[in-house]
Amino acid sequence: MVQYENISTQNTLESLGIYIHIPFCEKRCNYCHFFSKVSTKDQIDTFFDALISEIEHSEQTNRNLLENSFVDSIYFGGGTPSLIKPGLLKNLLKILQLKFNIKDPEITLEANPKSFLENYRDKEDIFFNRLSLGIVSFQDEELCNLNRDNFGYDALKLSKKLGIDNVSVDLLIGIPGQTLDTLRISLDTICTFNNVNGVSVYPLEADFVLPDEVVLEFMRYSKEYLCKKGYIRYEIANYAKDGYFCRHNLKYWKYMNFLSFGPSAASKIGNRRFKRSSNLDAYLHKNFLMEEDIELSDEDEFFEKVMMGLRLMDGIKILELKNRFDRRLVDNLILVSKKFDQLVKIEEDTISLTNKGIIFMNDLLVELIPD
Ligand SMILES: C[S@@+](CC[C@H](N)C(=O)[O-])C[C@H]1O[C@@H](n2cnc3c(N)ncnc32)[C@H](O)[C@@H]1O
Ligand code: SF4
Question: What average pLDDT does range 338-345 have in this prediction?
């Protein structure tokens, strides 16, 4: 485990999340919209060289931000970060440590079960303190329908053997062939591992999913099952034991700052949102193209903050909105919330979704989209 010194932080420093996009997979799943390519060894080495250059370049251009921030979450996402040998990622962490003011960080590795089994063999390999395992399902047939392999159980056993005590498992609902029984088997299986402290239950987004009403039933079932087992639903699709909410992902939902590296990676710093191009060839040639770089208006920021914040079961604090945004925007939100009281509720200082709102959140958002 890499040790981090507490570099002196003043109260005025803002928390910053760092995301690193690893754009490679061993093979592509037939439903995935994330940017990744099937990799070759040469490409991986070239990619890391380019990635380090991008980080160094960012250090120069974002000096002001870096001087005023401390990093308390680092997220290796993808694509498939577990495809990369741990030594390369450990080295990258050392470089980040030199460039950023890193303070007691949550470090997440997103992993595909198969490459996790291949690349992580002993405790020395573990440089992260949170493992996000894309298990999806434990059924051969369901996984085969998605062009995925079935190594979830073995990966969980390995995580336990390696002493990783913060594992979060991704399950999907709505997979062709899935039934309430097979979903129950997935939930039963993960709950036999006491190091699984987080579970994400995502509806499969693809053009071959099970009908909406089945997905809704699976969603309701998962919620009841996981809550009975002591997991807290803290976001529409995310559950965790107390103390294990994902610090990095909370930054997206709470609309905090995050700085991202790698092709297709999106960042948000203050009112600036920017996204790297997905052009891997250009990236490997250290041509760091932007796909989007915009300054958000107050209205846009307000809308995005509400859209993200409503995903949290704790909702959004009205006072926080009033302190930051024009009064008219907040008043309009309260007005729309009262009109759609089936979807959203106001309790004391908080606006949050009702059970129906969790499903039909978009009906509310269209009323709030800025002109
Ligand atoms: C981007 S992957 C990263 C981890 C690793 N590559 C894997 O697949 O296990 C993270 C999660 O996103 C899920 N995912 C990807 N595309 C999705 C889609 N269209 N709908 C729902 N979940 C999706 C994957 O199944 C996986 O659980
Ligand atoms: S392994 Fe993960 S990132 Fe790669 S294609 Fe499959 S779901 Fe997408």
Answer: 95
Peptide bond before residue 357 is cis, with ω within 30 degrees of 0: no
Q: What's the DSSP call for residue 123?
A: G
Count of H-run helices and E-run strands, the chain = 15, 17
Domains in the chain and their CATH numbers?
A: 14-251 (3.80.30.20), 298-371 (1.10.10.920)
Tell me which of 21, 28, 82, 204 to substitute to probe ligand 2's pocket, judged by most ligand atoms within 8 Å of the beta carbon: 28
Distance CA 98, CA 92 (A): 10
Mean pLDDT of the chain: 94
Which one of 22, 32, 142 would you pick to mutate in the ligand 1 pocket, going by the greatest count of ligand atoms within 8 A of its CB? 32
- Secondary structure of residue 283 in the 3-state scheme: helix
* 80 CB burial (10 A radius; 0-12, 13-18, 19+): buried
Could you say which DSSP state residue 211 is in?
P
- 106-138: per-residue pLDDT in tens? 999 999 999 999 999 999 999 999 999 999 999
Do the Cβ atoms of 21 and 77 come closer than 8 Å? yes
What is the whole-number distance in angstroms between the Cα of residue 200 and the centre of ligand 1? 11
**Stated pTM of the model:** 0.95
| Ligand 2 contact, 111 CB (< 6 A) | no
Q: Is 42 helix (H, G, I), strand (E, B) or coil?
A: helix
